[in-house]
Amino acid sequence: MQKSIQLDRPESPRNDSNGTNHVHNQRIVETETADGFKKKEQSCFCLFVCLCFSSVFRFATCQIPTDLSIQVEDVTFHVHKYPLVSKCGYLRTVELPPPNSHLGYDLKLEKFPGGSETFEIILKFCYGLPISLNPDTVAATRCASEFLDMTEAMEDGNLIAKTEAFFTFVVLSSWNDTVTVLRSCEILSPWAENLQIVRRCCDSIISKISRGNSAEEMLIEENWWLKDVTTLHISHFLRIITALRAKEMKPEIIGSCIIRYGEKWLPSTDTKTEGTGKYGNRINDFQVMSGRKQETNIGQNKERRTIIESLASILPPQKEAVPCKFLLWMLKKAIVYAASPVLVLELEKKIGMVLENASVNDLLIPTNSVGEQTIDSTEKQTMHNLEAVQRILDYFLIYEKQQLQQQGLKSTASNISKLVDSYLAEIASDPNVSIDKFQVLAESLPREARASHDGLYRAIDTYLQSMTVEGCARLWTVGSSHLTHAHMQHKMTGCL
Q: What domain of life does the UniProt record list for this protein's source (predicted)?
């Protein structure tokens, strides 16, 4: 795409009956506003400088041809060198190729902050046209002016000073403007970071959120800031929440922020709304299914993995900060998007501390990460991740033992026994669940933890339906330690 800057000598203007001023010359007929850069169908970029005094229009006239072509992204700008060189230190020092270069341009600005749209703002400023700074463009314009070295040494009132003043005195005084500018910084790395735009926006947001205890409580009740903060890039959100944690904001509030961010940026995994699988197990949107590799967007999966790891890293250590259901939701995400194994283990430990609040549906954790093969693999894989549940159960038993020794609290193992037995019944119909895995899970809890063995009996009953005689014999050891001899004899007879 070609764009040119031209100052053409117009013929005298005329007025239509509706008062519209028209400018005619030999090449174009154009209706234009006072400060207008106009995109033409001929892919030209025409500039008419119009100075308005009362109702009289005076047109700056010039027939100097453009003598510099600059490419930004896929757009080539044909401009006059002097207006730019007088304000841009970068253009004074850069070495230009010889005229008539086969490249089609004299200078290419690689990785220019804000792209061609921001360069148009720079051109307006260099040609003396008024520019209108606003929260959507000020960060990109500030970065671009730094790129071009538009300092006060070049000219008093240059663009760096103007954008800095607008950012400092206008943007940072407003919550909405600060959030808007911070969002715009997502595509301006590393310039926005190096110029401290991101840091100053984050500091302003943090200050406004935690402006004293009484103000903080008011903001918490209104909850208005949570919605805005959860729209930010994960790196900016992480910085803000980390600072709020350092200011000792309540864990429940930090947890609420993390939950809302995860729900906004990660796909839903609510298995209650999904159908029923082949083995009576609910199938959720993890899509652990047969026969082929799943088609995935690598970039999107990487971004989601970063979000998961970032959110997990700022989870408060307090048990009451986030519910067990959300921790298990995060664990499923971490496994599906192949998050760090260390992070997975940390999540499992946190879940073990609050396992009594889990439901069977929450414990149906996927085995595969996105894109992995399932049936094509020579190794038989279970529908659900039994190893993760086993580790969580082990962490629970360790944590409960510590609590009983240190604080003498009442054991919650009886509640967990019902959960474990229900989970065993859920996975029992999966033919790929080995006897060893089933037995280890069933025997994880001490015998005295079960006030009733009915749940375990039903789970074994379901499991034995698909077992061979040899398998039934091996499972005898599981039932004999928890069930009556009569019950097991009855089931063995059923197998035979």
A: Eukaryota
Vertex 218, ends 214 and 223: CA angle to 5°?
145
* pLDDT score of 52 more than 50: no
Q: Maximum CA pair distance of the chain? A: 110
Cα 335 versus chain centre, distance: 17
Closest C-alpha to 478, from 453, 496, 495: 453
CA–CA separation, 240 and 354 (whole Å): 27
CA gap 226, 253 in Å, rounded: 9
CA 11 to chain CA centroid, Å, is: 55
Mean pLDDT score of the chain, rounded to an integer?
76
Question: Mind listing the pLDDT tens digit for each residue in 336-384?
Answer: 999 999 999 999 999 999 999 999 999 999 887 655 544 444 457 888 9
Chain-centroid distance of CA 322 in Å reads 20
Which residues lie closer than 8 Å to 412 by C-beta, 6 or more apart? 356, 400
Record the tokens describing residue 190, joined without a space. 């590393």
Of all helices (H) and strands (E), which one includes residue 493? Answer: helix 485-495
* Neighbour-count burial for 346-363, b at 16+ CB within 10 Å, e otherwise: bbbbbbbbbbebbebbbb
Backbone angles phi, psi at 85, to 5 degrees: -65, -30
One-letter identity of residue 255: G
State the DSSP string of 47-105: E--EEEETTEEEE----PPP-EEEEETTEEEEE-HHHHHTT-HHHHHSPPPPSS-TTS-
Q: How many residues are listed for the chain in this entry?
A: 496
Structure pTM? 0.77
User: What's the DSSP call for residue 170?
Assistant: I
What spatial distance separates the first Cα and last Cα of the chain, rounded to whole Å?
Answer: 81
Rounded CA separation 365/348 (Å): 11
Structure confidence at residue 434 (pLDDT): 87
Give the C-alpha separation, 308 to 158, whole Å: 43
